[in-house]
Amino acid sequence: MYLQPTTTYGSLIPGSEYIRSLVRQGTISSAALARLRWIDPYSRLGNARLTCRHFDISPQTFYRWKRRFDRLDLTTLEDGSHRPLHPRSPQTPPAVVERILALRQRYPRWGKDKIAVLVRREGLTVSTSTVGRVMKRLRERGVLVEPLNVRLAKLSRQRRHKPRYALRKPKGYPIDAPGDLVQVDTLQIRFREGRIRFQFSARDAITRWDCGRAYHRATSFAAAMFLDYMEKKFPFAIRAIQIDGGSEFKRHFEEACRRRSIRLFVIPPRSPKLQGYVERSNRTSREEFYEVEDIEPLIEAHNRQLEEWNRVYNYVRPHQALKYLTPAEFYERWLKEHKTKRH
User: Fold this and answer.
1) How does residue 9 score in pLDDT terms, banded at 50, 70 and 90?
2) Residue 49 near residue 55 (C-beta atoms within 8 A)
3) Which of 22, 110, 120, 193 has its CA 20 to 30 A from that of 148?
4) Within a domain: 115
């Protein structure tokens, strides 16, 4: 026998509407609300064992909270403090505390490690962790206060983060036409002799049109240059770009997108699945280009090879996701269909 789920916070607990308002306002915690749901069926049925089996809790736990529960004071269902009733008093001798305070006031920028060395030089036995605990207690009591110029220096060094141009993609953002969303990513290329290059890759979400170019370094300036290259190679206007959180897509790249009024979306950390189109583009480039071709040592020749590969991909290679059309064929068919719809 199992309990039927209850839709109220307690038919026999008075003021259920008031309880709902407390939950909405955050006056009681979710843990207290869960315990209140234990009390509700027990108040109706009076069967503690059945309540425990339904909510998968031990009888000891249920009876402990039942004894605490006061129907007129829901805070009795909140977790109490686990602080010991009689905490242990500090055992550091007063003379050591005084020397730590004096040395820290004399050298206000020195931490516990340096202060501990100075205290031990005076013949006092003390550990670094003890010095740290003493300094913490002195700060909490307001005895150890940093000088005004130190506090001002810390405030002046606080970095003021400029809001990023890149934002999270809004929920329900429409992707209906070529250029509505182009995903951009970097692919690291390692050569046998130890050289490393970086390929910036871009793929359109609708037509699967690809574009790639190699650079010596993955910097924001290189990313801005790649944006210029993308605008030349894509046969349609780019209205929005999606990137990951890499530093190469900040500063110069963000500024270049802002000047062009191209919307810039950044995915959450550790979410490569949201970049599935360009991630698949990187895999295809590895398997069908870098694992097949002998890449030229000079980057100019390397990019000429990439241009030829992009041409083959966009105009020759059938794409399974496009029902074995090439991106160029798919885009041409899309233009014809939407031209007909407009007329």
Assistant:
1) very low
2) no
3) 120
4) yes
